[in-house]
Amino acid sequence: MSSSICGDIDAQPHHVVLFPFMSKGHIIPILHLTRLLLHRHLAVTIFTTQANHAIITESLNDTSASILDLPFSHNVPDIPAGIESTEKLPSISLSHSFANATKVMQSDFERALHTLPHVSFMVSDGFLWWTLESASKFNIPRLVLYGMSYYSRSMSRAVATDRLLFGAELDDELITVTPFPWIRVTRNDFEPPFTEPEPKGLKFEVTMKAVRATKNSYGIIFNSFNELEPLFVDFWNRKYIPKAWSVGPLCLAEPPKVRNEAHDNYKPIWVQEILMHESVQGFLSHCGWNSVLESICAGVPILAWPMVAEQPLNARMVVEEIKVGLRVETCNGSVRGFVKWEGLEKMVKELMEEEKGKEVRKKSKEVAQMAKKTMEEAGSSKCTLDLLIDEICGKKT
C-alpha cells in the first residue's frame, strides 16, 4: 500500500497530507506544491491510487515525499473496471460520475490517516469533498486546492448568486456581471449546472457537495498570484469564505532538469524546453488554467481556443482582462462555434505580424517578469505560503 521515495516523516516536526484528484491536470499542481512544502522543511505524504502512482514517483523521485496508494473499487456504477483517472474515461461526460465514485476510498483513507504521524494540515482537491469529513474526524485542518483562477471562480459565483444567465434570450447575448460592470459574459461561457434555472442531477449534486465542503474548510489555495488578478483576489476574500491564499504560479516550483538527449526515451520538457524556447512566439491553447499559467510564466502570448469547463472564462481573462492573448474567431461568432482554418490563419497572422499582436507579446513579457518575482524571496506568493504555514502550524518557517 505504501511507497516512500526517501526520507523519514517521523523525523519532521510538521507533517502535511496531500490528496490530488485523479486527473493529470489536477495532480501536477499538487506535485509542484509538494516541492514548496518540502523546501520549508515539512514532511509530505501524498495519497493516490496504484494506477496514478507512477506519475507522482517520476516527478518526485529526488525528494523525501512519501506516497500512499489507496485501493479504488473496480465495481463502480458507470465507470468501466480498471479506470482510475479521468484521462482513461471513455467520455468526458463521466467525469462527475468518476468524482462521485472517489468516495469509495474514504474508509481506506481514514484507516491510513490513523497510522500516520500527527498531521498538521491537509490539502485536497475540490472534487474530493468527502476528505473534509475525514479531516474533521482527525481534527486536521483541510485546505482546498482548486485548479482555477480567482477570475473564473468570481465570475461563476457572481452569475450564480445574481442568477444573471436567465434574463438573456440567446446563449451568445452579452450579459453584464453586476460586481464588475466592465465585464460581459454569455451563457455559452458556462456549462451546467450554471446554465440551468432549476439544476438537478448528478453533476449538480457533485458540484454542491464540493461547494459546501469548500465553504466549511479551513481555506482555499489558489494556483495564482496577487499581481495577476488583484481585483478578483480582493473580491473573493471580501465576499466569500473560506479565506483564500495565492501561492502560484506553482509551475515555477519545478526545478530545472537535465535530460540526456541521446537516450532512446528522451522526451523534451514541455515548459522549459518547448514553451520557453526562443523560437516559440505564440501558444494555441484550450485555456486550461495550468496551460494559461505556463504560457504566462514563459512570456508567450496565447491564441485562446477554449473547449470545456471554465476555459471560456479563462479565455476572456487572457484576452480582455490581462491582455496577454488573442481570441480565435469562430465562424458565427459564438463562444462554442466552429473554427475553420481561415479563421485560425487570420489570428496567427494578427499575433505574429500586426500591431495588436505586438502589444500582447510585449504585455506577455511584462507579466512573465511579475510571475517570476512573486515566487522569489520576498515575493507575494512566497510570503503568502510562509504566512499560511505560520498560521496553520503555529510556527515560524
From TrEMBL:
The UniProt keyword set, sorted, is: Glycosyltransferase, Transferase
Q: Which PANTHER family match?
A: GLYCOSYLTRANSFERASE
User: Which Gene3D superfamilies has this protein been placed in?
Assistant: Glycogen Phosphorylase B
Name by which UniProt lists this protein: Udp-glycosyltransferase 90a1
Similarity comment: family membership: Belongs to the UDP-glycosyltransferase family.
Q: Name one GO molecular function term.
A: UDP-glucosyltransferase activity
Source species, domain of life: Eukaryota
Species annotation: Quercus suber (Cork oak)
